[in-house]
Amino acid sequence: MPRALFFVTLIILTAFPPGVHAQVKPDAGNEESASRKVVTFGCLLPLTGKYRILGEKALKGVLAAAESGHSGIQYRVVVKDIGDRDKRLAASLDELLNTPGLSFIVGPVPSKFIQAVSPKVNSKRVPALVFPVSENEASGGPYIIKYYYPLEEQVRVLSGYAARGLGIRRFAILYPRTALGARMKGLFASGVAESGGKLVYEGSYDPGSRDISGELGWISSAAPEAVFIPDGAASSAELILRLKREGKLRDVLFLGPSTWNSPLFLDLIGQEIDGFVYRAVFTDVFYYGDGDWDEYSRLTEGKFNEKPDIFGYQVYRALKLILSLNPESGGGAVITDGLGSLRNNPYYDIEIDGGGSYRVSPRYRILSVSDGELIDIINVR
Hints:
Layout: E1 7-13, H1 31-35, E2 37-45, H2 52-67, E3 73-81, H3 86-97, E4 102-106, H4 114-124, E5 128-130, E6 144-147, H5 151-165, E7 170-176, H6 179-194, E8 198-205, H7 216-222, E9 226-228, H8 233-245, E10 253-256, H9 263-269, E11 280-284, H10 291-304, H11 310-323, H12 332-341, E12 348-352, E13 358-362, E14 365-370, E15 373-379
Helix pairs in contact: 2-10, 2-11, 3-4, 5-6, 8-9
């Protein structure tokens, strides 16, 4: 089958001197281009400043999604570089909202800026696709579309599966002494209590040194059946190996967040733990055998000659969902009504939250490690 053609026009507006504007030249004399439907959407991304890497990842996800969109449609992508300053964000938003035929906005990224744009996008009825980390992080409104894997849901799924699915009753928590580590600790403790389990040990460590020598004896004497470690792939793998070898926690189930769903985690610990006997279990919304991940990998490696990343993939999946709704110029209701019609979709949980925003969460999976490979134990519904 011949490959469908996709047309993407990218306009990046950043640091132009006063009075200078970026323009897109039409395809002169091209009747096919003139008759093709054009969908214009904007992006509020940090392509300079301290969040630049995050912005670049998001942009790759945007371009990959646009390239895999509907054939016969030209996507006009207007990207505003918001840097890392609130003042620049405000000016960029105003300019973007004045773009002729604007259908929707991707961003702002990072999520700390969501609250600043909510009033204007709601008043202008232009949907903004955003990516919070936590359920309590972003303000809402009918034109804020939150696509995310919230920490709260990760912890609820993980603690519930361990307690009810595997019959675990005695839990321990070993967390890094950071704001996020403390929050994950609190969420997990609540999840354990709600699931009928008992928290028998709670310990912490310095995230720089990861020294747990003072915790090994205590955690071993508490005799937990499962240990929750809310840290990154490399740090968690190091701690698990120490707990197994020095803390003599050989038959304990180790539990972790979506950061464990990583080739790095597999490389560091894959031969040490066999998931079929439930020695390491974590949760995420995808695994590396997914067709969407394979497609995103092909697009990013072919277009940018780089390995795919998780945040870019999150943006890619979210934007593909929005483009599947066939958005129109200035048609915010087309997108919000379309999301409402997908509320029974088997791949997403779509609901309206307490702030009136659409919350879109991909279905969670329970993942593990077996024979040196990441495996999908169950697709949580």
